[in-house]
Each structure stands twice: as structure tokens, then as C-alpha cells.
Write the C-alpha cells for this entry.
Amino acid sequence: MATTDNDAVDEDFVRALPKAELHAHLSGSISPLVLQELWKPKRASGQCLELEDPLTAIRQGEGFVDVISFFPLFDRYIYTLVDDVQAVEYVTGRVLQDFKDDGVGYLELRTTPREHVASGMTKEAYVAAVNRKLRQWNESQALHDSKDSVAQHTGMVARLLLSIDRRMTAEQADAVVDLAIKYMYPAMGLPSEAEDDEADEKGGRPTVDLNESRPVPVENGFVVGLDLCGNPLKGDVSIFTPAFKRAKRHGLGITIHTAEVPQSSTSAELSTILSWAPDRLGHVINVPQEHFKIIEERKPALELCLSCNVLTGLTSGGFAKHHFGQWCKTDCAIALSTDDVGIFGSPLSHEYLLAAKHFDLPRAALVELSKSAARASFGGRPVQL
Ligand SMILES: CNc1ncnc2c1ncn2[C@@H]1O[C@H](COP(=O)(O)O)[C@@H](O)[C@H]1O
């Protein structure tokens, strides 16, 4: 995109800017209108009578949720509406379309494998449904997506991350890793060029231990990474060390929700997370100086979510005081991200607009930001937006 610094950053510019979205939770990205489409027929058949209309239940904007009221929204509300395989496929398709309509060229959608006993949906059926929708989506976009036309292609490439919830047991987390390996995007298991070169210098290639049992991968898997998410006031992350180390050995990218609240920003928790050698960190709000320095040196990419943090009160002082301003001064790549656009109502283009407005960024800086997000993708395919 040709730009001059004198051009104003406006809605048209940020919408047209090709963007990579790396931190988007599937269930939190469903628009209230789509939730209402599921709510209406349930209501008409006498189900979910206790659930308010999504258009009034989810009031996108300041003061609607805080860290206490936010997480139950999923368990008590959204999951009651998206409760079978058909609904999961449907909402996934709508979420993909919404991101594309906002000018996203590369999307990593993340989701927690979830079961629903009454509808017979197992965790694997859930992952298979999301993965199926991604396959259909990527096939439909391939029409516009060839090696020679990457720069101008109008399609959106979609990949998947599976999430471990902080409330899970170590065994449940292991089962998520099994699913991630089974539904892994084929190119992920291969060493990168840099790893290859390093291995050549050391006289050997990195390998996965062949004796380690691993699920047989499906064809057309799209999982490129593993995430740790969930209520930061719950759980002990140290029980997930084997799960994240195994995922890493199998070539999956690793991204961790980090230091979202002061209670989860202890030295012990941060040291544990950093011992997993994460490729990316999400939120990184309350990072103590000691760990700030380590992150600055190791340079994992950072997924920063302005609206989410400000609207939930995870940060104070409004947008202008968001820690984006601090991390920008480091060499860490930054991926502006939406987190839960269905709840916060701020699409990725709007996050770029907010960054421009509150941090006085010209067009060229936004182009650089979008490129740095693309470079931080787990992709399995070179991303050139
Ligand atoms: C401050 N923002 C956040 N911090 C931590 N975890 C979050 C989150 N926003 C969403 N999730 C996690 O994503 C799940 C919903 O999407 P999926 O059902 O997995 O697609 C939530 O249950 C929560 O665990």
C-alpha cells in the first residue's frame, strides 16, 4: 500500500489496510446479531427462556463487563446458545466472514475444545467442526490466493489455535495437545529454515522423538498452535508445563495469556510461562520489571488488545495510558488484536484507528504494525500481506 505520512489515518485507510489478526477467541468473536439468530428459534421452541435477547444482553462498550463478570458470559450465556456441532460450524463461518469484511488477510482463530453432553457433541467433534469450516473457507479463498498474486489477493487465509483453559486438569490439557497434534497443519511439524540452518551448524537435525506416541494426523488439519487462556484468577499454570513442552516438541506455535491481572503476575507464574519458551504472549499488562527485561531480551511477539483491556478495566487511564506505549519502545513485534470483537464491538480496523489516535501514529507506522503482526504468525505459509 503506497502511503505518505501526511495522509490522515481514517476509517477507510484502516479498513483497506491488509491486516493479520492473531488473537481472536472464536466464541467471543460471534456478533450479537448472529447469537440472536440462534436464540430466536430456541426461544420459540421453549428453550433458553432464562436467556435475555443477545442484542440487549451483550452491550458492547464501556462499563458492560469487568474481569469478574466477563468469563461467566461464556459458560452461562454463549455456550448455551452454541451447543451443537451445526451451531459451531455456523458461527465459525460467520466469524470468518466478519473478519474478512474488516480487511483481515490472515486470521488465527483460537478456541477451547468443548463438549455438550445433551447434543452429543464431544470435544473432538467440536474441533472437527471448526476445522471443517476452516477447510471449506480456505478452499473457497484459494480461488483468489496464488503465490503470484499474494500482494493483491483479496481472500483471507484462516488457521486455528487450540486453547487450554486455566481451569483444566493436566490430563485435560494433554487431551487438547493430542487434538492439536491430530488436527495440525502439515507444514507445522517441519523445521523452519532457521532451525534447519542451526541444526546443520550443530551437525544434526531437530527431530521429534519417534518413540513418543502421537495421534495420527488427519488430512487437512489447520491447527498451527496452542494457547493458554481463561480466567486469570483461577488455576495453577505450572501443571501445564508438560503439555506446552510436548506441543513445542511437535512443532506447534505457543502463545500464552500473560499477566492479565496483578494476582496472576507473580514471579513464579511468569517464570513458569517463560520456561515454556513461548513464541508469543497475549496481553502482558502487569509485567514486573524483572520479567519485562527478560521479555525485552527474548523478544516473543506480543498480542495487544486495546479495547478489551480498557473496556474491562484490566488497564487504567484509558487508551492513551495503555501499555502498548511501553512495549512499542522495545524490539518485540506487536500484533494489535481484537480478543473478543463480539463482546467489545471493536473490529481490528478500529483497533488500528485507536492506536493511531491515541499514540499519534501515521499511516506508515500502521503499515509497519500490520507487517509485524503478519511476521509473528504461526502460519505454516509465508505471510506477505
Ligand atoms: C481478557 N480476555 C481474555 N482473557 C482470557 N481468556 C479469554 C479472554 N477472552 C476470551 N477468553 C477465553 O476464551 C473462551 C471463549 O472462547 P472459546 O470458547 O475458547 O472459543 C473463554 O471461555 C475464555 O476462556
